[in-house]
Write a structure and sequence with these properties.
Chain A: Keywords: 4Fe-4S, Iron, Iron-sulfur, Metal-binding. Chain A: Pfam families: Fer4, Fer4_11. Chain A: This is 4Fe-4S ferredoxin-type domain-containing protein. The complex is a heterodimer. By secondary structure, chain A is an alpha/beta fold. Chain A has helices at about 20-25, 60-65, 95, 120, 130-135, 145-150; strands at about 5-10, 35-40, 50, 55-60, 105, 110-115, 140, 155-160, 165-175, 185, 210-215. Helix content of chain A is about 15%, strand content about 20%. Among the domains of chain B are: about 1-55; about 275-330, no CATH class. In chain B, the strands form two sheets. Chain B has a three-stranded antiparallel sheet. In chain B, strands 4-5 form a two-stranded antiparallel sheet. The radius of gyration of chain B is 25 Å and the shape is elongated. The chains are: A alpha/beta, B mainly alpha. Chains A and B meet through helix 2, helix 3, strand 9 and strand 10 of A and helix 3, helix 6, helix 10, helix 14 and strand 5 of B.
Chain lengths: ~220, ~325
């Protein structure tokens, strides 16, 4: 886990899409949101979960490892960057290798997009757009100490178990107090997600889950 | 070790080509020797860097599959125009850049065609492959020879003559216009300046502008100053070109060598097999079967043993993780 990072608490998410809208305003990818907001139980409850790039630390950035064009840079501060525009060939390896389902691809532009922890802001000490606007603190940006000042005794975890493959990440998630912090979070690899194909609760908003922009395949 | 070997062999092949193409150095212009020597180092650098690049699992597999698709007889029969069409639209006119931004596409086209024109003139000249001969001492009737063989005869005072002798000036104007646009964008635009590095992002643009400006000043010196300052400018121009050629394989310019991989990728992905792999969970199409199998093999090469997840669409990956969190970590939030 990075020193100053994003901590996600899906339990606080109310699915308002403020993070999606704010991300779209970011200067480095104007008009396109890099954050995913998924409704986990559409039609059944309001449960929703935001997903930013988790900035995988070990194994380091699978997206960068599978990239055939050396387009994804990992800076010494642990941030996994979006694709270098001069190198990305738009193959989509990163999109499908990412165990978290984060990168997006624009097939016409032959370019990958992904959350870069709002590097234009965080490299100057500002919080990312999503964390700045989240009204419930579901997306928090800061150190663990700062989080604990706001939420005394809170615990976080930053390892995931994908069917025995353990991935530790730079971004963390809140876990209930008392849960062993070194116990990995479930990646859900062995399970079948309940397909949530019913209409979006937010009316006709375009789903932020769309990873393929442009003509699919 | 292998990249060094490939680099040395490539450099030696170029040396042999220079020797033979200049008719055993008969046509070699020793005033241009620093450029020719730099191009030999460039050949070494490109081959070295390229071999090192394609030794990584992702690039190695794509390299094999891409060339396999490009040279496939079956593909050629099924889609005979696919390869030349992609080379023209993708590598030549760079349509994908237009989808990113029309202004960037236009500026990049200026740089691309300018550099291509300059390279097409400069390299054969410095290698002694192009020579210009005149029957009378001062012309104006010239013959252009390639490898010592006469190719075209022209009047130096005609339009063709002007274009031939000012090709590098035209290239310089194109490159200055394009590179200046990108330089201004890098200073003003936060999308471009986020995470930009001086050596990687700004040096290439500055190098292109310095080469082009000093090149134009050479013409200015000979036309307007009767050669005043020509020798100094020639050294300055040569230093800029030589340093840029040496830098080329190791910085941003290496994308010139990498970009054709995209054509191989497109051919391999979409031309070879039409079969589509669908998400194991929701049935949405992910990508072509050949591509997904190749990605899974790449992941196994890299010991990323969650390669089975490549057959689940990104959305289902997130839903699975979110639902698992909701059912086992923070039940019923």
């Amino acid at each position: 886990m990075m020193g100053r990072t994003i901590v996600i608490d899906p339990g606080r998410c109310i699915g308002c899409q403020a993070c999606v809208s704010a991300c779209r305003e970011c200067d480095s990818h104007r008009g396109k949101s890099m954050i995913h907001l998924d409704y986990l139980d559409q039609g059944g409850s309001v449960a929703s979960s935001p997903t930013v790039c988790m900035h995988c630390e070990d194994p380091v950035a699978p997206c960068a490892q599978v990239c055939p064009a050396e387009a994804i840079l990992v800076t010494p501060d642990g941030v996994v960057h979006d694709a270098d525009k001069s190198r990305c060939i738009g193959c989509g390896n990163c999109v499908n290798a990412c165990p978290m389902g984060v990168p997006k691809i624009d097939l016409a532009a032959k370019l990958q997009f992904k959350c870069n922890l709002c590097y234009d802001r965080t490299s100057y000490g500002l919080a990312p757009m999503c964390a700045t606007v989240c009204p419930t603190g579901s997306i928090f940006y800061g150190t663990l100490e700062e989080l604990r000042t706001e939420r005394p005794g809170v615990e976080v975890a930053s390892t995931f178990d994908f069917d025995g493959s353990i991935i530790s990440t730079g971004v963390a998630m809140v876990v209930p107090r008392g849960r062993p912090v070194d116990e990995p979070l479930p990646g859900g690899a062995g399970e079948h997600a309940r397909v949530t194909g019913s209409p979006q609760p937010a009316g006709h908003l375009e789903p932020s889950a769309d990873n393929v922009l442009g003509d699919p395949l | 070790m292998r990249p060094v070997l490939v680099g040395v062999v490539t450099a030696l092949v170029l040396c042999a080509a220079i020797y033979l193409g200049s008719r055993e150095l008969h046509n070699f212009d020793s005033a241009l020797a620093p450029y020719a020597i730099a191009s030999v180092f460039l050949a070494f650098g490109i081959a070295y860097r390229y071999t090192a690049w394609i030794s990584s699992p992702g690039a190695r597999r794509l390299f094999k599959k891409g060339w396999g698709a490009a040279l496939s007889w079956r593909n050629l029969r099924r889609a005979p125009t696919a390869l030349p069409r992609m080379i023209a639209t993708y590598l030549g006119f760079q349509k994908f850049l237009g989808a990113r931004s029309r202004a960037r596409w236009a500026a990049h086209q200026l740089i691309f065609w300018g550099c291509l024109l300059a390279a097409a003139i400069t390299f054969p000249l410095t290698w002694g492959w192009f020579t210009f001969t005149a029957n009378t001492g001062a012309g104006p009737q010239y013959t252009m020879n390639i490898w010592g063989l006469p190719v075209v005869e022209f009047n130096a005072l005609s339009l063709l003559g002007w274009v031939l002798f000012h090709g590098l000036d035209i290239a310089a104007v194109l490159v200055i216009a394009g590179a200046t646009y990108f330089l201004i964008r890098r200073m003003r635009d936060r999308e471009a300046s986020t995470g930009q590095r001086f050596g990687y992002d700004l040096v290439p643009l500055l190098a292109l502008i310095i080469i082009s400006v000093t090149g134009l000043l050479l013409t200015f010196s000979s036309v307007a100053l009767h050669g005043g300052g020509y020798e100094f400018l020639a050294v300055l121009h040569m230093a800029a070109v030589v340093l840029t050629l040496l830098y080329l394989p190791f910085g941003k310019f290496f994308h010139i060598a990498q970009r054709p991989a995209a054509v191989g990728m497109q051919l391999f992905k979409y031309t070879e097999h039409g079969e589509i792999r669908h998400c194991r969970n929701c049935g949405e199409p992910i990508d072509t079967t050949a591509y997904v199998d190749n990605l899974r093999a790449t992941m196994r090469d890299l010991k990323l043993d969650f390669d089975g997840l490549a057959e689940v669409c990104p959305r289902c990956k997130r839903l699975r993780r979110g639902q698992a969190y909701r059912s086992t970590v923070k039940p019923g939030f």
